[in-house]
Amino acid sequence: MARILLPLLAVALMGPALPCLRSPALAQTPLSGDSGRIVLSTATLRYVVEGRGKAARQRLQMDRFVLIGHSVFGLAVLAYARRYPNHVAQVVAIGALPEVSPSFNQRSDEFWNMYASTGRKAADEKNRASLTRDSLAKLTPGDAFIARYVARAAHYWKDSTYDASPLWKGVVVNVPLVAQQFDASRTFSFAADTAAVSVPVFIALGRYDFAVPYTTWEGFRGPFRDLTVHIFDGAGHYPQLEAAAEFDQQLLAWLRR
Fold it and tell me: Which domains can be identified in the chain, with CATH numbers?
């Protein structure tokens, strides 16, 4: 039976019925290799696919698994499944980007400008205004990253006033790595390679996700042989938290097909 492997760089925030998968997202741990830490210049999404996946299989002594990724690492697990289908039983991509590129950033901005309510935009402006240069200068680079991320609540959560600070407690952010992962000049398009994804894929998107709008997946569904896309009306970038009951129900039913 396939077991569940969580990506080493970004494990998802899961709902109450799946407590074993609950942990803060994003690249929260330093990437370690044989020498203690990998060279950051190679820590791109392609490195995640080619290097970390193999290392995880060897370390965990697992040959085939259900692979789960959130946000940018949802894109990574999709690419991994296409590259190594014999090692993947199913893929769950939550709030996953279809690509990292200037085009994606433009489409996200357009979605925000068109669909974010006046109240949501006001909340976003208020949060951003609270982050002064002096206040950020007093923080470590990692803590400053977290402060900026939390301040963008209107982009990540259906509840634009949600305070995600407790979710980041104890998280160590590898800032140089995060900067590389989201560098739009280093494009990583899942659709650029037309090879099919042969394993079943479940993509979970939030109706109120302004970081990864569900509309950005339009035109990216061709390479899949068995694709299920579910848009959670009561959630943003984290449907596993904001729509936990529905998320658990949908995911577990899909896994048991």
Answer: 3-104+173-255 (3.40.50.1820), 116-168 (no CATH)
Are 216 and 103 spatial neighbours (Cβ–Cβ below 8 Å)? no
Q: CA angle, 252 as apex, 1 and 93 as ends, to 5°?
A: 90
Closest CA to 96 of 230, 193, 5, 187: 230
Task: Name residue 174's amino acid.
Answer: N
Given a contact cutoff of 8 angstroms between Cβ atoms, the answer to whether 13 and 238 are in contact is yes
Does residue 25 surpass a pLDDT of 50?
no
* 188 burial via Cβ count (<10 Å: 0-12, 13-18, 19+): buried
Nearest-angstrom CA–CA distance, 130 and 158: 21
Burial class (CB in 10 A: 0-12, 13-18, 19+), 23: middle
Please, are residues 24 and 167 in contact by the beta-carbon 8 Å criterion? Answer: yes
Residue with tokens 């995640």: 48
For residue 11, what pLDDT band results from cuts at 50, 70 and 90? very low
**CA pseudo-torsion sign 165, 171, 176, 181:** negative
The structure tokens 């302004």 sit at 210
CA dihedral 97, 116, 114, 109 (to 10 degrees): -40
Cα angle 39, 44, 47; round to 5:
80
Work out the number of other CB atoms within 10 angstroms of the CB of residue 10: 25
| Residue 236: its H or E element | none
CA distances from 170 to 24, 166, 176 (A): 9, 9, 18
The predicted pLDDT at position 195 comes to: 74
The C-alpha atoms of residue 14 and residue 20 are separated, in whole angstroms, by 8
